[in-house]
Amino acid sequence: xxxxxxxxxxxxxxxxxxxxxxxxxxxxxxxxxxxxxxxxxxxxxxxxxxxxxxxxxxxxxxxxxxxxxxxxxxxxxxxxxxxxxxxxxxxxxxxxxxxxxxxxxxxxxxxxxxxxxxxxxxxxxxxxxxxxxxxxxxxxxxxxxxxxxxxxxxxxxxxxxxxxxxxxxxxxxxxxxxxxxxxxxxxxxxxxxxxxxxxxxxxxxxxxxxxxxxxxxxxxxxxxxxxxxxxxxxxxxxxxxxxxxxxxxx
Length: 250
Ligand SMILES: Nc1ncnc2c1ncn2[C@@H]1O[C@H](COP(=O)(O)OP(=O)(O)OP(=O)(O)O)[C@@H](O)[C@H]1O
Ligand SMILES: [Mg+2]
Prior knowledge:
Layout: E1 8-17, E2 20-30, E3 35-39, H1 46-54, E4 61-66, E5 69-70, H2 76-82, E6 84-86, H3 99-110, H4 115-128, H5 144-156, E7 162-166, H6 174-189, E8 193-197, H7 201-205, E9 210-215, E10 218-223, H8 225-229, H9 232-249
Parallel strand pairs: 3-8, 3-9, 6-7, 7-8
Antiparallel strand pairs: 1-2, 1-4, 4-5, 9-10
Magnesium ion binds at residues 46-47, 89.
């Protein structure tokens, strides 16, 4: 039996903001081609975990390895070059640039491609993300779904080994969520490993083969999505909050 090396390895990641523990000696592996979903209450530290993987934020302790390479101590742009692609919870397109230019910047600066290769790869990536028809529009004029697609396209343009998606389905209608799920499933089916943080649980269960719940800086549940969703701790922590939120809206 051969043992598969993880594509992403986290070891002993800890982080506190003042007295708030957002990561408590957190260790986990992501296997090549795996799709891991992460749920957890607001403020659990999910986005912070991505920032510590992408190098936007330094953990207090811990090691991040990508494909056997130790990234600890490397800065964000170096990690992008190494193969960490991430989207942001609040999309940050260059509003006045076109959709194509937005993706081109990431292929060039993030992906390290020369001019011609970057042009080709940016065009390919736009088509892959379903944005070909919007290439020449200003990013700031896009619909929410197209903005989400652009956020994914920018990360894909760096040709990542691992794609980190932070709440890309938030704010979309159900049919729009289905379109985004189709995109993310196809990217994963091509072999790209993903971690997807999302409150829209049905989007996750349609996509991921593993689900974890982050709370109190720990993965309080991690495994088969159907098992994790009925885990009593998860129901209390996460679904309890979702029910409360629905009641608040009523
Ligand atoms: N740079 C920072 N400085 C201080 N506190 C921070 C910082 N970033 C995040 N926090 C705090 O850390 C906690 C975790 O934040 P984080 O954004 O990681 O949560 P999250 O799990 O992504 O939540 P949500 O589901 O609402 O996006 C929150 O209490 C937040 O206010
Ligand atoms: Mg977040």
